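Loading example: each entry is read as two labelled lines plus one structure line.
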Amino acid sequence: MRWTGNIRFLLLAPAVIWVLAFTVFPLGYSLYLAFYKIEQKVEVKREKQPMLDAAGKPMLDDSGQPRTKNVVIKDQVNSATFIGLDNFKRLFGDPQVKEAIRVTLLFVLIAVPLELVFGFLLAVLFNQHIFGRPVLRAVMILPIFATPLAVGYTFFTIFYEVGGPLAWTGIPFLSNPNGALASVILVDIWQWTPFCFLVFLAALQGVPEELYEAARVDGASPWDMLKEVMLPLLIPTIVLVLLLRMAEALKLFDIPFAMTGGGPGVATQPFSLLAFRTGLRFFDLGYASAMAYALLIVVMVVITLFFRRLRVSYG
Amino acid sequence: MMLDLRNGTGQYDAFMVGAFWYGDIVPAGYAYAIDDLNKSDKYPQWSYDDFPPSLKTLYTWGGKSYGIRNDADGQVLYYRSDVLSDPKWQAQFKKEVGYDLPNPPQTWQQLLDISKFFNGKNWDSNDPDPDSGTVLHLKVGEQGHYHFQSLSASFVINPGDKVTRTQNVYWFDPEDMKPLINSPGHLKALEFLQELHKTGPAAQVGWSLGEAWDYFLRGKSVFVFSWGDVGALCQDQSRSKIKGKCAAAMMPSSNEYYDFTKKEFVKLDKPRLVGNTTGGSWHGVISNFSANPEATYSFLSLMAIKPVSKMMATFGWDGVDPGYSYQFLKEDGGTATIDDYVKAGWDANDAKAYTHAYHEVFNAPTMLTYLRIPGTFEYWDILDKNLSAAMSGGKSAKQALDDTATAWEGVTDRIGRDKQKADYQAAIGYKP
């Protein structure tokens, strides 16, 4: 059956309205905020207005006087001054931005490769016939389903340095700037290595058994099989997973928000957390929008470069 | 709250605010003045006359009243009365440190000596592990900067009868809004706080209120300086091992302060009491968008009337801390009795020390000036992050305060220096 006529548009309307309201409008409005300085002032007047019944007649109180209701008349004066690229220029001179970029890059450059390596090694292991594989595989992927915010609070308890389960190690998990960043990275690895593992395992299980048999006939060692059979076939999957994880990692927010609050100092404050605080704690919405757009541009550039590279290498 | 106000939604009739929000909500026209309602006899009756001046200021702005009485925040020193009065420890302290163990300490320098002395010793018999001197709550984004404010007040505030460019100022120079936060007095205070931090668990850099209070309540530290909640929590034996041993005192004083006029440190012969209203003194403010301000005022006033307000302060665990005359004992000029507190579950000695400490801290001859100008939260956040970096070893004390001052200049310029100056002068009562 084929839909014809205007009913097609009617059925599409909810989706279109949703996208316009919750994606396109916020995107456009935040861009507007990034280029304007908004100042708000409100004047309030109050009036007593008669209350009317269903028939439109004035309602009376027990003493026969007309009942009134308060009506608030708001005169909200919003002035918007065009400030051009000022908010974007501020980004370059802001030491907090510099530090947040350092933290974010460090996080991405350490956490993401480790997640891929561990995920790949686990996938290779689980691609063998090991005892209890179905159960272990199910257990392995559980962290993916945990809410990152809850994970952050859980690990705050685990890393609690006085009386926590790991307190005996004497490691300053949260009280030392480097220790805290390492802890955030560790938790992210714990949560997202299973995702890499799952995708790699699916890809590995798609490799035809004949290729392994042919390699064995040619006298390939397990290392040769990994290097010459598995890896070349998995490269597109690895690039895809790398891309997805990098895009996510660049937006890191929940785990440091819950676990360290971005501290000590700003040692674990990633760019997204800084943008959130700027916008929703200090209501510097223009500057926060500029931050968000800067992050968007960086993520888009990274993704575009990777896709281009992928296309060049693998058509 | 701010989204509702900024967008003019008007969904809420009132907000429970910290006093530091006044600079953001009153000048912008978001708050409803309650003077007429407070004078009317149509609503539950309470009065600003019961307030000490230091707290009354926080509930008003520009000569108009906005806040409906509820909480009174300030930091006092809590200490283990049993440990400091123990003859065994007193003798050992004198032998090791060279002077009589002050009970309680009058100066910060004495407190540091005591903290150092007790840190690492197992002076509390609740467990076999070593205990600490002072516990702090230093987690970034939480209440760490409040510690610094209360502690540094006596290193910085220059006493005087009125607010001048150099007297009774702490945050900014009221003439040009240049930050004072990196003054030699502030720097010395931060270096002191770094020293004090070493007498507590290293993990406290990542601790908020709950963890630090719990540490003290479990009998693991001799001192904590914090809000009124601690005194009440000490009495809750389901979580406290120190009921009857939890004394409180006015915050100690530094034995020197930085004179802004002479530009040198002044040594003091005797301790100088500097009070504080550190915190939020959380209370209700009616939204200017409320269609029913009278009903809202009436409702909030139910919590402000004396019997309710007194009951809440004596229980304490509800977050309402004492500050008003009828919550203080008769010996401090109040109308409450020790029985009021004992009936609420207090140890009599703990309650006496507690209420006296709070009376002192709100009625001190010199007070830490309270910051409540537009952007206060942002100024504090910058300070907080830099303090946290200094306490965790990421920055030196000087670097942290210099970075704070530089960033504050940026905030002031962005919001508008002249506007900020006018609001700051009004907030601290400075007349050019």
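Chain A is about 65% helix and 10% strand.
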